Structures are given as structure tokens and as C-alpha cells.
Amino acid sequence: MSKKSVIILGSEIVLVVILYYFVKFNYVQFIPSCWIYQATGILCPACGGTRCISNLLKGNLVESFFSHIIFFLGIIYLGMVNILYVFNRNRKKKIATWLYPRYWYGIIFIILLLIYTILRNFL
């Protein structure tokens, strides 16, 4: 493994450990609640994202999934792509490069997020 890959992987592990302790000692309570929800009573596209990440770091995968489905799938996708990138960085023949983010993946994510927001507010 190259030195740059080790640095990338090490910094990601440190970030996850910091986030884990942030959640473990319940500092999440200091994050303000959604002002859009408080003002209108309508869930914004990001409502539930903090609970999703918090539950994911605690290991509650089912609660994390149902807190915000799109965020959960996005986090899993980005984690897979990250592992794949570090793995492919040291290989001549790359595998599953079709998973790497493309601009239209972002467009699909935004469309799914809007559909999810509409469905959970009006159904």
C-alpha cells in the first residue's frame, strides 16, 4: 500500500473514531433542531440525517435506515466507493470503476431526495 493510501485510510479512521466519541458522549443534543420543521411543520430533505448518522455510529443499522433512508444509502455507497478507491489505488487492473461517482449520480441523488421528501411529508 502506498504512503498516500495509508494517510487517507488513517485519517478516515481517526475521523470515524472522533465521530463515534461525539455520539457516545451524547454531544448530539447540542445540535440545534431543524428550523424549517419548527417554522412550517414540514420535514426538510435533511430532517433525520443527524439521527441517521448517530444511529449508524452506535451500530443501530435498522434505526439508522428508517431515520433517513436516502442518507443511509448514500453513506453506505460512499463507504463502498472509498474502500474500492483505496483498494484500486495500488492495482494495475482496476475493478468496479463503474461505481465511482459521476455527475449524473448526483442528479439522481437529488431527485431521489426530493421524491423521498415529498412522500414522507404527504403520505
What does this structure look like?
The protein is mainly α. Helices cover 69% and strands 0% of the residues. It has six helices and no strands. It has helices spanning 3-24, 35-40, 49-58, 61-67, 69-88, 103-122. The longest helix is centred in the first third of the chain and has 22 residues, at 3-24. The chain is flat. The model has no long low-confidence stretch (mean pLDDT 84).
Range of strand content:
under 5%
Total DSSP helices: 6
| Oligomeric state, counting identical vs distinct chains | single chain
Bulk shape = flat
Summarize the amount of helix as a percent range.
Answer: 55-70%
pLDDT < 50 runs, ≥5 residues: none
- Secondary-structure-derived class: mainly alpha
Short description:
The protein has helices at residues 3-24, 35-40, 49-58, 61-67, 69-88, 103-122. The protein has 123 residues and is mainly α. It is flat and about 55 Å long.
Question: What's the helix and strand layout?
Answer:
Blueprint: H1 3-24, H2 35-40, H3 49-58, H4 61-67, H5 69-88, H6 103-122
List keywords for this structure.
123 residues, 0% strand
